[in-house]
Amino acid sequence: MREIHTDKIRDAVRQLYLDMLCTIGDDITLALRSGLEQEESPIGCMLLRQLLENNEIARNERVGICQDTGMAILFVELGQEIHLTGGSFEDAVNQGVREAYEEGYFRKSVVDDPLFDRINTKDNTPAVIHLRLLPGDKICITAMAKGFGSENMSAMRMLVPADGEEGVLKTILDTVRQAGPNPCPPIIVGVGIGGTMEVAAQLAKYATARPIGDRHADPRYADLEQKALSAINALGIGPGGLGGRVTALDVHIESCPTHIAGLPVAVNICCHASRHGKCEI
Structurally, how many domains does the chain consist of? Predict the structure, then answer.
């Protein structure tokens, strides 16, 4: 049995958010540069160059990539051979988020009540925590900062098995088409297929954190990812929604078993400021 003090969790979460809110991943940078080579629209090219410049300034100056510094979402794999000491795991995560947003002067965007009071909690907590218990004595954290310009454009559909691949592809394209310029394209599209309503949504969210170009292990789903990406980029929405070829940088699908009567499909859209990071304790 390995003991881990919750201070280590707090410090790891704090550092993840301090880093990823100012520094975009290399995979996104390479995808934007590749998009610049493919884009035919002069306005689209100008916007892609501005995004690359913005990201470089944020990295060098240690300032937020975007004014919407997002809601903190963490996927945590907790080894069952670990004994946590020093307090609550959830409290440690929230304290790490709290300290990062204070120290980095990042915008606090969380309200306490979703419908009536909507009073800002003033520290960007509580975070959304998805926890899995796994064998082993390590903690693996995948953290995201999810802006709501893109989150608001996401969708959930409960298809039936007869809808098949065509129905899934139509759901993806309809969601992106309806979103138009609102999620600040170019976007990353995460798709969750299977499970139940809430499981599909979690899969779709997790899919947005996969590296650009990382294909599904099943070649059938990998082919569907490519089909969806090509179809999205043929819509003509383009960078910033101003027209062009580069509407999406990638499409990632996550799948899992489901009921014989169902085909849940969730589409989670992430803007070009796809801020995520991983660490292991």
Answer: 2
